[in-house]
Fold this protein.
Amino acid sequence: MSPRRSDRGKAQRGLTLIEVLVALAIVAITLAAGIKAAGALTGNTQRLADTLAGQWCADNYLTRLRLERQLPPVGDSAFTCEQVGQSYKGNVSVRPTPNPLFRRIDVHMLDTEGQHLLLYTTVMSRL
């Protein structure tokens, strides 16, 4: 055997324990960040679905008011709405405007836990 071959055989191959632990730590941190991001996306998706369903409820309520062809009385009221298998609560605030032919209507939509989803505001005319 030549001296070169024996030197190669003595050289260590592979990774040290420290190098393996550092690599595992990097992988663990990367996976934890990925899981956190996925959880945030899931929460945002649910919030978007609730907001969209709340907007449908507010639209339906305001459409019903328009179809009645009468200005709603000034004051506050509440209603419930069923959308996509969940019940949403709405608080309606009707206020006068400087022009007596118009009323401002604010619809506050709440999710099933009572958290604010959206505020929908419109102006309705007597016509």
In short: Strands lie at 75-83, 86-96, 102-110, 116-125. The CA atoms of residues 36 and 42 lie 10 Å apart. The chain has a mean pLDDT of 87.
